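Appendix B, example 12.
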Amino acid sequence: MKVLLVVNPSASSVNARTRTVIQKALSADHRLEVATTSRRGHATRLARGAADDGMDVVVVLGGDGTLNEAANGLAGSDTALAAVPGGSTNVFAHILGLPDDPVEATGAVLDAIDAGSIRRIGLGSVNDRYFLFNAGVGFDAAVVEQVERRSGLLKRFAGHPLFIAAACSTWLRHFDRRHQAFRVTTRRVDEEEPGDPTTTGVDGMFGVCLNTDPYTYLGSRSLSLSPGTNLDSPLAMVTMRSLSLANLVPVLTGALGFGRTPVAECRGVSHRSNLAEAHLTGYRPVPYQVDGDYLGEATDLTFRHQPAAMDLVVPLDQPAA
């Protein structure tokens, strides 16, 4: 097979030794080309070029942001995407059941490629951007913005503690918890038109549109917001109307699997699944993120399910969620 390895040299788990070992493993039985990203959006252009050149697989050694960019370059093509975890969180690699160690993950990817374990999966999209696992609006995007404000070196080594600290700081000082930020209207796959937003819409401060679950991970423990959502199903939308501690604590414990009440049944939470589309209107410009990448602020966002959008290399005995 013709394989392109896309490497993000700034990713936290990427170093010269690891990269050399992975390159040797991929080149043993496949025609390998290697490309290194140098700026934001570069992985999209590299992946799109690989698809245009008839490459069979694009293997991404990097974090979720690099993987998202590559997916945006491959959507609609016949070139498959493979993930090798190289970032600090690696949500999508965790969802696929890949080992945390990038060398071990490469072995799992090679076994899957050799066995032809490639599936056509659905993607989510928000406006003109695809996402693999989720797109968040409001509070979580504000947290991502605070993380991205930190230096690259701090992001590289602090990992999950940095996200926890940023979440606390954002809740205390960097997000308006007194006023609703947006309104969301949804349309299920069995509905022809969305409902009247004045009667069916939901106001919120934090919303996440999920293409698959879990939402993210804290270490090895998953935060699950919509357990029935997976890469073969339509989207789900989880909206929190309040960010008070009385509402946040049950949601967090439920998402971690400690609470008795599922997230969908928690007070102040709206959970809608089997969605073909969701539309969000901001009462003010609201921050949003896609697969962990902060994209800025918007007042108008449309989320859509894009079925059978991309080929994905799936580890053996670890069906994609």
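The longest strand covers residues 269-290. The chain has ten helices and 15 strands.
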